[in-house]
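Example S7 (structure tokens).
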């Protein structure tokens, strides 16, 4: 698993000030995540670190492993992960999204993709979500509490409950590919304008469209053993060393963590 450059203060690798210089295309969250980890690993090489090694992969034997702490965190070093979020019904409500109809309303995405900047051990894990109203680098515990409120989760039907696939950054760069066919209209036009660069295809991607495999919530999607089983919300919290019981927000509000940023919504179908 490739490490990224360390910050002296132990804070996030990227902050709100970095947001505008990172590659972003509305409605292409999976490509935004790919480009962010690509930029982070390039920063490591530029800072004099060893170039990221090819991923050795992780053996995921069964669904019980999904509840355990991530093996990749065991050496305590800083690492990046890409987090694919969806549900059994391919409709997952996420709060604190810029595309929401109002501040208290969720956006029901078919899927969403963010990046986790994990300090390892007791250090915080930060979330980079280009489409959230929360700060660009929000601690994972805070992000999960606001984006997936504990008081709402028991009320959701099973088809809408969030599931999370954690993908090591190197595996994302190696195996992910998208020909953007999921964004084509029946008549051939685009649902949303595509990024200006060529379609992504990692050097180990077995075909030009791998997005559906990454979003396949079966334990062994399509035989792609490099993809870990999906995790529930409590399992995700446990995997990153957080309490598996997510407390209600209580008196806290989004204003307590809001960075005051605006613009650049992530609306539209994907």
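Recovered sequence:
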């Amino acid at each position: 698993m490739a490490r990224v450059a360390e910050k002296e203060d132990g804070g996030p690798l990227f902050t709100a000030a970095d947001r505008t210089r990172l590659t972003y295309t509305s409605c292409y969250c999976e490509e935004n995540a790919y480009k962010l980890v690509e930029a982070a690993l390039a920063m490591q090489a530029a800072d004099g670190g060893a170039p990221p090694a090819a991923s050795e992969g992780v053996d995921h034997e069964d669904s019980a492993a999904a509840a355990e702490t991530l093996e990749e965190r065991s050496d305590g070093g800083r690492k990046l992960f890409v987090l694919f979020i969806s549900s059994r019904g391919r409709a997952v409500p996420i709060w604190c999204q810029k595309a929401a109809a109002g501040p208290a309303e969720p956006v029901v995405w078919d899927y969403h993709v963010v990046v986790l900047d994990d300090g390892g051990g007791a250090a915080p894990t930060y979330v980079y979500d280009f489409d959230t109203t929360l700060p660009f680098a929000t601690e994972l515990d805070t992000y999960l509490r606001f984006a997936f409120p504990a008081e709402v989760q028991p009320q959701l039907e099973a088809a809408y409950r969030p599931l999370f696939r954690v993908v090591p950054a190197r595996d994302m760069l190696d195996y992910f590919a998208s020909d953007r066919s999921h964004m084509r209209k029946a008549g051939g036009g685009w649902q949303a304008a595509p990024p200006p660069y060529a379609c992504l295809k990692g050097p180990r991607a077995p075909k030009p469209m791998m997005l559906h495999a990454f979003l396949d919530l079966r334990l062994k999607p399509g035989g792609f053993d490099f993809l870990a089983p999906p995790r529930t919300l409590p399992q995700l919290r446990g995997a990153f060393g957080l309490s598996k019981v997510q407390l209600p927000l209580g008196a806290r509000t989004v204003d307590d963590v809001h960075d005051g940023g605006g613009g650049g919504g992530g609306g539209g179908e994907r």
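Notes on this example. Residues 5 and 44 are 5 Å apart (CA to CA).
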